[in-house]
């Protein structure tokens, strides 16, 4: 399925300014301002000055929080987003309630305890982000994430992403029954997304975060309906096309 | 959600001829002709004379098979349909490959071995059929069955039915993850069906089929989205309505 741009102008705008450039600019800005996020339950709160606010919105990290403060904008980052900015992009620090900075390992332990299947979800998130996909929550489509080629204002999301793992936790009950498979595929089709399954397996043990992340291996699978009409041998297709013309 | 009739005439036609009447007529006709179904893998084949063919189609049992035979029409019954006609309606006999008639217990053992979760699926099927719902396969919607108020030509299916059980088999992996729940609900909403969950538990043991069926207890649950606008206190609704008028 080809990317569904929101108009010709949107496609031109996206090509002129790749997502990697926008994310790099956000990274530099956050490093420069020595930004600190505040752990708060299942999210991390971070204050941005006006220029950063624009970069956050363009790079599609977090959700802006409406408040009365005029000189700074607060953003609510998901656990995956915060850990990615902190440990992979190395552009923010995260502090706990006691204002003490948390190191990578402490963050990892905290987040793993807060969210079922977090190691796999984070691996999936960072896997896609590193390839410059914009990754957002997929809750409304019954999947873990949705992936956009560029900013959601310019293009519709292309992939509905399900994260599966070998480990025996709640995350692991998806797609085991045929009815679930059909249901997911039909829903993806009706919202014009391709189902992308990231199957994540853990090899080796003992290493601590973030180097432990390299032990997680990602296998990408796309599931689409098999359409007999579109899957005939080349000759038939040529014949059909020549009939049309 | 109100039933979605396929036009005013369809509704009138359905009211004039209740499904229970049509099914009774099929039952009498099958008993009279001493009908025999033939076990064949995961279905049962049954020949019908022209008048029966119409009754089969109206009562919505089985699928007609296209063949060159003119005087009789073959129908392919699902395992649930065949066992229902045989053991509950007691209007057909079922024979195996050796042309020997199978008794209820033999049929039950055969079908249970052919289809994962069959006892629960059959209990759900007969539960709904006995209440005069027309029950068809729900594969295309990622559920076990769909239920119609009357013939599918007259009305759209109202319920997407998922059968859940306490037993630890493949059927039992549905709706365990939130993402699956969201996915199923969103799909049901998009095809204007209500999600009906039949939770079936087995109490007691030892009895043989068909009396063992009484050991299965069915709990009906409907799952719908909670819409705050529609769930306010009465007073507010009255106020809103009076504003409109």
TrEMBL record, chains A, B:
SUPFAM superfamilies associated with the record: tRNA-intron endonuclease catalytic domain-like
Highest taxon above the source species: Eukaryota
CDD domains registered for this protein in UniProt: tRNA-intron_lyase_C
Segments forming domain tRNA intron endonuclease N-terminal: 36-108
Family annotation (InterPro entries): tRNA_endonuc-like_dom_sf, tRNA_intron_Endo_cat-like_sf, tRNA_intron_Endonuc_cat-like, tRNA_intron_Endonuc_N, tRNA_splic
EC number: 4.6.1.16
Matches recorded under Pfam families: tRNA_int_endo, tRNA_int_endo_N
Top EC class, one word: lyase
Reaction catalyzed: pretRNA = a 3'-half-tRNA molecule with a 5'-OH end + a 5'-half-tRNA molecule with a 2',3'-cyclic phosphate end + an intron with a 2',3'-cyclic phosphate and a 5'-hydroxyl terminus
Start and end residues of each tRNA intron endonuclease catalytic domain: 121-205
Matching PANTHER family: TRNA-SPLICING ENDONUCLEASE SUBUNIT SEN2 (PTHR21227)
Family (UniProt): Belongs to the tRNA-intron endonuclease family.
Protein name per its UniProtKB record: tRNA-intron lyase
Organism of derivation: Rehmannia glutinosa
């Amino acid at each position: 399925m080809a990317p569904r741009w929101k108009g010709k102008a949107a496609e031109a705008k996206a090509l002129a300014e790749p997502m990697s450039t926008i994310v790099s600019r956000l990274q530099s800005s956050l490093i420069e301002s020595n930004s600190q996020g505040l752990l708060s339950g299942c999210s991390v709160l971070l204050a941005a000055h006006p220029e950063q606010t624009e970069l956050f919105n363009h790079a599609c990290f977090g959700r802006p929080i409406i408040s009365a403060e005029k000189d700074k904008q607060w953003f609510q980052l998901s656990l995956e987003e915060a850990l990615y900015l902190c440990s992979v992009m190395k552009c923010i620090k995260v502090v706990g309630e006691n204002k003490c900075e948390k190191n990578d390992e402490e963050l990892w332990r905290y987040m793993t305890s807060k969210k079922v299947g977090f190691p796999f979800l984070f691996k999936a998130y960072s896997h896609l982000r590193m390839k410059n996909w914009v990754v957002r929550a997929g809750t409304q489509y019954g999947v873990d994430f949705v992936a956009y080629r560029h900013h959601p204002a310019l293009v519709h999301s292309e992939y509905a992403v399900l994260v599966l793992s070998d480990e025996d936790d709640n995350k692991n009950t998806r797609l085991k029954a045929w009815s679930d498979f059909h249901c997911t595929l039909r829903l993806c089709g009706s919202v014009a997304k391709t189902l992308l399954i990231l199957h994540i397996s853990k090899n080796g043990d003992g290493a601590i975060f973030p180097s432990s992340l390299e032990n997680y291996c990602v296998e990408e699978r796309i599931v689409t309906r098999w359409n007999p009409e579109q899957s005939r041998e080349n000759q038939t297709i040529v014949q059909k096309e020549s009939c049309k013309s």
